[in-house]
Design goal:
The chain is 50% helix and 20% strand. Strands 6, 9, 10 and 11 form a four-stranded antiparallel sheet that branches. The protein has 367 residues and is an alpha+beta fold. The chain is rod-shaped, with a radius of gyration of 63 Å.
Length: 367
């Protein structure tokens, strides 16, 4: 019931209308509430195009709500892609963004920092709830041919994450299958370039690094938007069927290497000594050669001088040589001198040997 229409006249009108006027009739009447609302509606209707105030307000409110629905927020561990009628048009990083609301554009937001692991050559399964994980072998993936035509059983994991969400969603259809196929192919290529012994012993780290680079290069060529974080070789050994025989071969190779090292050490000790001895013998031979040559040259010089003297006085020289030779021959021998011109009897006989024997006794008697 409006205040001014109270017919009983007992309820006071706050605006003073309808009641008795104050004495003197001074001041104006306060505005009515319905008049104010009506005036506001008229002013808003005149301000809007076409003058349709109610429908315009509703349309404006709906438009604002629709535009506000295009706001979206991307967290620090997420990336977003904007799709315009289903087509990828742009990507967005962390922060507050806006896109044309549905159905013109939609947005896909996903976390990109979570790491995913692909197992190759083995399958991890849970035995019973709450128990540890049990790994089973997948030999169709793990058995690979080496450079020296042996079979190696190698199991490894590849850890990866999303690098570019747009490329990840729209350039490849099966990310897990793509990473797995590329990783297995890369590992088979690297194993085929190495021998089995370094693969299972000292070259595992290098193979992991080479596999990481090779897988990343191949994935990038696909523009898959994936980053390979790690390649981890879990196990690399000979197949179970030939493992014992292979260990025997390894032990034999170790013995071979040990004996070779011992032989090298012995050679390093003996060879220098032999070389020193050879050098000493060589120097002694050189000295002997020099001495013999010098002696020969001296003898030849002496012979030449004797020969020259012989040519000057052949008879004297011949006689001197004869006497020197006879002196050399008869030295220390018993000698008897017989003068063939002294006639017969004992006179020509001179027993020099007897005299030499009796001479010491006679000498003692005279003393």
């Amino acid at each position: 019931m409006p205040w001014q229409s109270n017919g009983d006249g007992e309820r006071p009108n706050p605006w003073g209308g309808g009641g008795p006027r104050r004495p003197g009739g001074g001041g104006s009447e306060p505005p009515q509430l319905d008049d104010l609302i009506r005036k506001s509606q008229d002013q808003l209707r005149r301000a809007l195009p076409g003058g349709k105030g109610g429908a315009g307000l509703i349309f404006l409110a709906i438009l604002l709500i629709w535009l506000a629905s295009g706001l979206y927020r991307v967290e620090t561990n997420e990336q977003a892609v904007v799709l315009q009628f289903g087509k990828w048009t742009e990507s967005a990083g962390p922060g507050l963004h806006w896109h044309l609301p549905f159905p013109v554009e939609t947005v896909e937001v996903r976390g990109v920092t979570d790491e995913k692991t692909i197992e190759i050559g083995s399958r991890g399964t849970m035995g019973r709830p709450g128990l540890r994980q049990v790994s089973s072998s997948a030999t169709d993936e793990s058995l690979m041919l080496t450079q020296d035509e042996n079979i190696v059983d190698i199991k490894f994991n590849v850890v990866w994450r999303i690098k570019d969400l747009g490329s990840y969603l729209f350039n490849i259809g099966d990310p897990d299958g793509t990473v797995k196929g590329v990783s297995e192919s890369a590992m088979r290529e690297l194993v085929g370039q190495n021998k089995i012994t370094p693969i299972i012993t000292t070259a595992r780290g290098q193979i992991e690094a080479d596999a990481l680079q090779l897988i990343q290069d191949t994935i990038d060529s696909y523009r898959a938007g994936i980053e390979i974080l790690r390649v981890q070789i879990i196990e690399s050994e000979a197949p179970a069927e030939v493992k014992d025989a292979f260990l025997d071969v390894q032990r034999a190779e170790a013995d071979q290497q040990r004996m070779k090292n011992e032989a090298d050490a012995y050679a390093n000790k003996v060879v220098p000594e032999a070389r020193g001895t050879a050098e000493q013998m060589k120097q002694e031979a050189e000295a002997y050669r020099a001495r013999i040559v010098a002696n020969a040259q001296g003898e030849a010089s002496r012979f030449t001088s004797v020969y020259n003297e012989y040519k000057l006085a052949k008879d004297v020289t011949r006689k001197r040589m004869y006497l020197e030779t006879m002196e050399e021959i008869l030295t220390g021998m018993d000698k008897i001198v017989i003068d063939d011109k002294a006639g017969s009897g004992v006179v020509p006989y001179l027993p020099l040997n007897e005299l030499s024997k009796t001479k010491p006794a006679d000498a003692g008697k005279t003393e």
